[in-house]
Batch of 2 targets.
Target 1
Amino acid sequence: MSDAFDYDLFVIGAGSGGVRAARMAASKGVKVAVAEERYLGGTCVNVGCVPKKLFVYASQFPELFQASAGFGWDIPQSPTLDWPTLRDNKTAEIERLNQIYQTLIDNSGADLINGRATIDGPHRVLVNDRAYTARTILIATGGWPYIPDFPGSEHGISSNEMFYLDQLPKTAVILGGGYIAVEFAGILNGLGVETHLVYRGSALLKSFDREMVEKVQEGMQAKGVRIHLNSTIEAISKTEAISKTEDGLSVLLNDQTSLDAGLVLFATGRKANTSGLGLETTNVQIQNHGAIEVDQNFATAEPSIYALGDVIDRVQLTPVAIQEAMVLVEHLYGEGQLTIDYNDIPTAVFCQPEFATVGLTEEQARAKYNDIDLYLSDFKPMLQTLGGGAERITMKLVVDSASDRVVGCHMVGDHAAEIIQGIGIAIKAGATKAHFDATIGIHPSAAEEFVTMRNKER
Ligand code: NDP
């Protein structure tokens, strides 16, 4: 494109958004570099979505072993978990994915530069003491776990370290009530760790449908997670080691009771990763909570610099960062027709029971529409009829009475993420309750309940 600069586009960060932007731009003939200081694939591939899901699978086996008896299986001796095998197999899979990312970048024609990048003015990036010039710089540096500061908080760890533990603790305390807190509560509990979840609010998962969150909490508690609501940690101190290999920690709660634990996990949110990036050498503006300010085209206040993904903190989800990258590349190097709609983004929390949702919560719908209809279904999954477990599935449809449009759809229970992904298309297409009613179910499935709900709950 231009001889005046080393690169047309210099991407900082090879996570989900950065790699997609780099590859798409390079495929359009743009001269691209992407710098990464840590690991290819970013949080999602290395210390997020992917290894988390593998751990979720691992943690679900004990319930399946239990259910198998009702189906005639006799497991001669009680199954045991070898944590190093799980951890190391997971790591090998992540390394395989890192390699795939490397190949994707190489094949796209973009240059991968290993090292920490700092911005040095609107068109310069320094990596490993070398300066590169670029017509456009894209900041896709993601986020980093936030750890609150209180006496002894240095004894706790973040989700980053959870994926590489030397050993599993016997007891764990998790602070927070968002995605990461509830997901790790399910993982640890399923892997046999006594798990305490400490959350400052009166109900977990603040932005989700209240009624469905209650189902999640009931389900988590039934599986053994000990949930401490309206609670905070005041201090953490070291005590005598719990075992030869496990540190002892005493966790003091705000009601002055304390919990002994081998591990404290902070799942207290993630902050935009901008420190030491050299933004002070530019006009890039930072919002109050630390995220980079961008307009609808992901442009910062510095005309040559763009940002997307977790570092702009609109919606911290991998598929959102990827779509933002596609929109940006189209804007910079294509027809500029692609857009991103932040409404009706389907999302799943891989807690146990699983929870997935698309559209408005009941609370949001009540605030937006004059009248809403609610349809609810709560039933025992077929696996449990012979399996004997107590788990249930709950589904909820939120309908705008005036237009008959289904404006929210929520599910707690097995395969919620898989089911809600499909329903998300219907919601995006503006489906009405009549469309749901006219759809033939797949029998026998849990998903068919979504098209057979006939009686208004309220
Ligand atoms: P969340 O923002 O989801 O949750 C953070 C939690 O920490 C909230 O419950 C918050 O409380 C609490 N908290 C914040 N500060 C403090 C504090 N000082 N003391 C005590 N509690 C505190 O962040 P996560 O870290 O769980 O995850 C980060 C993001 O990553 C998520 O928002 C999500 O976008 C993404 N993610 C997505 C996943 C998925 O798609 N399945 C899985 C994991 C992460 P309060 O609610 O009161 O503010």
Target 2
Amino acid sequence: MLVSATEMLKKAKEGHYAVGQFNINNLEWTKAILQTAQELNSPVILGVSEGAGKYMCGFETVAAMVKAMDKSLGITVPVALHLDHGTYDGCYKCIKAGFTSIMFDGSHYAIEENIEKTKELVAVAHGMGMSIEAEVGSIGGEEDGVVGMGECADPAECKQIADLGVDMLAAGIGNIHGKYPANWAGLSFETLDAIQQKTGVMPLVLHGGTGIPADMIKKAIDLGVSKINVNTECQLAFQEATRKYVEAGKDLEGKGFDPRKLLAPGVEAIKATVKEKMELFGCVGKAN
Ligand code: 13P
């Protein structure tokens, strides 16, 4: 059931668990994530970066695919179709394409401009019944060409953006997109705690969910994180399973070259990763 992310995140914040955002790249990814959410009776957010949207022939194609798949798979759990790290123009494209949620990443602008643009998009998104995420401070590393230096957010700026009426707030707390380097300093819980105290009931978003140890994830949820984004980990799981299939020569046996067979181990690996994360985030059984 396609919905905005507002209700599911409000419930997550009140219930002290987090909803997973899993980024999609194609039909296999989308199906694997939707089926796992349904099986586990969990709410879920499908994240679409601007690069992945382009790869899938544009946001209209993505919205049409997700809507049709949601219907034909008989998905009853709440599903939000969400733009990940959207530009100002990208947000308007997704509003038009029929997404149910957007992220406007204005973190690279001066705070005044981030506020101005976020404010405008909050009004437009809410007018369409959509939810909106904003960002303060930046997420380190690179995702689909979006590069961040990873500076921690200023709690006072977080409050200014939260007060604009966004539905969820991403704040840099030392998190990084992609794999964490061996010398990573870990999440800044001091920053997270200060942001949570300033922003109160606002559901906070933890980007860069790949490779964050379970104890840190749990502590982040305790300190007010209600949405956790995972992208790279599903890609790595898919790649590893596909590599094993090919290295074992299975693509050369019988009709092992059939794409439905060739991609099946990777799809199962995505499902296993999504299940593991949903269990860790505490959102299993929270669909109703
Ligand atoms: P990872 O690729 O590190 O899991 O980050 C995902 C993310 O934050 C999407 O915005």
